Amino acid sequence: MTGDAEQLRRIRSQVLQLIAELTANPKPSYELDGQRVSWSEYLAQLRSTVDWCDRQLAATEPFELHSRGVT
């Protein structure tokens, strides 16, 4: 799973770089010759991808479960 986790971290890093570029130089959405380009939707998809990567990475991390019995 180490290779998978590393790949997820790489994807997350690349997407964060795209988000940084988009937010540094925001562009308006537009339609040209019937083709619609929505930068806000694209940004939302990128953020969703980061969230997905975070969830996948969290699932690969070891965890402890603490419990206590009550008598």
Give a structural overview.
By secondary structure, the chain is mainly alpha-helical. 63% of the residues lie in helices and 8% in strands. The protein has helices at residues 2-24, 39-60; strands spanning 30-32, 35-37. It has a two-stranded antiparallel ribbon with strand order 1-2. Helix 1 runs antiparallel to helix 2. The mean pLDDT is 91.
Helix share bin: 55-70%
Spatial order of the strands forming the largest sheet: 1-2
Cα gyration radius (Å) = 19 Å
Unreliable spans are none
| Order of helix and strand elements from N to C terminus | HEEH
Can you tell me the overall shape? elongated
Number of helical elements = 2
Mean pLDDT equals 91
Proportion in β-strands: 5-15%
- Terminal residue distance: 40 Å
Task: Please tally the β strands and state the result.
Answer: 2
Structural class: mainly alpha
Give the biggest beta sheet.
2 strands, antiparallel
Give a brief description.
The chain is 63% helix and 8% strand. With 71 residues, the protein is mainly alpha-helical.
Give a topology summary:
Elements (H helix, E strand, L loop, with lengths): L1 H23 L5 E3 L2 E3 L1 H22 L11
Helix pairs in contact: 1-2
